[in-house]
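Exercise 7. Given the encoded structure of a 401-residue chain, write a plausible sequence.
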């Protein structure tokens, strides 16, 4: 985690308590506004994307209000919330796992009303903070204890037993400050030390993608490891693939050259070398060419499904990236997210294809998503050409240059 993984505990506590007040007063518009601010503060989600992310958590909260609520609907909104947050947060978490931990906490919190010192509530909070912030359970325990104290103050208010509601709101806010300070201390301790690598350049990128696949890690890794087959099952992105060096029995040392694209009107020619291979858990590659960096696939089983994480740290070395990232970076990032979303769709179809045993099952499968439409390419062309003209105009026409 970089320095941006830290946050301001006081500001988050203040906004969160204000959000609690809005929630219990059923002031949903106010709750949405405060949640947008919290998303920006805690997960560094830029506006207007923070509005979309906040909408999902507010919908989850509203769906949770009835005692006889639809748990699947609540979980769906929470998962969407954390999946969107994961795109921006300088934290490495699996959205589905965090959403499940959040639901367990919400269930315990409702069931143990009036019994907040119950160890189960502290355990669910410990697991939630551990899942979000990448802490061990021991590290997350102190923050969980402080959050329980905040909830106890809240109980006095909502239960009508408070002697001074405003004082209890202040106590709740102070407890939340201590909660987030406890988390922040561990995040700060993990920051790079003085003398660490220089600040990143505009053409440096870090993406963390999460897929949840119906299948075992062995099934998923078998698809990922066969680079020569990428053109067939992921045709929206992989145009050509050449295996240069086969590597050893586990694939370590394999060198593959690729021609890839997204929805924007440019192609990327690059190659990767497999540096680590520990099937079915992990594959790590080193990229070179138009992209320079490292990618790590990590697979974790979860029942009959597999949580797939791809951590991709690269520097765009293509001239378009070197000279255009300072203004086009959000567009290039959106292009990557589009490509990985198509990859998730394609992987799901490919896993079904490999499990199909009859002609009817094969014929029922849809084709994987294909390359981008002409309309998207045209839009991307207009944007890039327009920005290119701005860059050239600034470089060659500005009287100050």
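Solution.
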């Amino acid at each position: 985690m970089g320095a941006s993984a830290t946050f301001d505990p006081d500001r988050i506590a203040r906004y969160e308590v204000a959000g609690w007040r809005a929630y219990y007063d059923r002031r949903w518009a106010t709750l949405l506004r405060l949640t947008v601010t919290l998303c920006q503060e805690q997960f560094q989600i830029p506006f207007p994307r923070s509005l979309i992310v906040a909408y999902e958590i507010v919908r989850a909260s509203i769906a949770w209000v009835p005692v006889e609520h639809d748990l699947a609907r609540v979980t769906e909104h929470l998962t969407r919330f954390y999946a969107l947050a994961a795109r921006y947060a300088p934290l490495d978490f699996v959205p589905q796992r965090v959403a499940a931990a959040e639901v367990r906490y919400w269930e315990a919190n409702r069931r143990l009303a009036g019994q907040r010192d119950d160890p189960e509530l502290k355990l669910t909070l410990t697991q939630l903070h551990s899942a979000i912030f990448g802490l061990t359970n021991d590290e997350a325990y102190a923050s969980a204890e402080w959050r329980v104290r905040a909830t106890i103050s809240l109980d006095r208010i909502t239960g009508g037993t408070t002697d001074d509601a405003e004082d209890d709101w202040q106590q709740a806010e102070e407890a939340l400050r201590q909660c987030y300070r406890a988390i922040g201390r561990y995040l700060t301790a993990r920051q790079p030390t003085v003398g660490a690598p220089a600040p990143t350049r505009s053409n440096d990128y870090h993406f963390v993608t999460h897929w949840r696949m119906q299948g075992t890690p062995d099934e998923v890794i078998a698809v990922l490891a066969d680079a020569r087959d990428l053109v067939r099952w992921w045709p929206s992105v992989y145009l050509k693939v050449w295996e240069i060096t086969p590597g050893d029995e586990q694939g370590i040392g394999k060198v593959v050259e690729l021609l890839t694209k997204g929805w924007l009107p440019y192609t990327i020619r690059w190659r990767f070398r497999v540096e680590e291979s520990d099937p079915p858990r992990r594959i790590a590659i080193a990229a070179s060419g138009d992209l320079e960096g490292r990618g790590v696939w990590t697979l974790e089983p979860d029942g009959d499904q597999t949580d797939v994480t791809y951590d991709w740290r690269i520097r765009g070395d293509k001239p378009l990236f070197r000279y255009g990232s300072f203004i086009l970076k959000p567009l290039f990032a959106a292009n990557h997210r589009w490509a990985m979303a198509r990859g998730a769709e394609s992987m799901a179809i490919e896993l079904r294809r490999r499990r199909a045993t009859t002609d009817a099952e094969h014929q029922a499968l849809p084709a994987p998503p294909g390359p981008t439409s002409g309309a998207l390419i045209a839009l991307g062309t207009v944007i890039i050409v327009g920005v290119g003209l701005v860059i050239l105009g600034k470089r060659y026409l500005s009287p100050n240059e």
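Remark. The CA atoms of residues 218 and 280 lie 5 Å apart. Students should compare their own answers with the one above.
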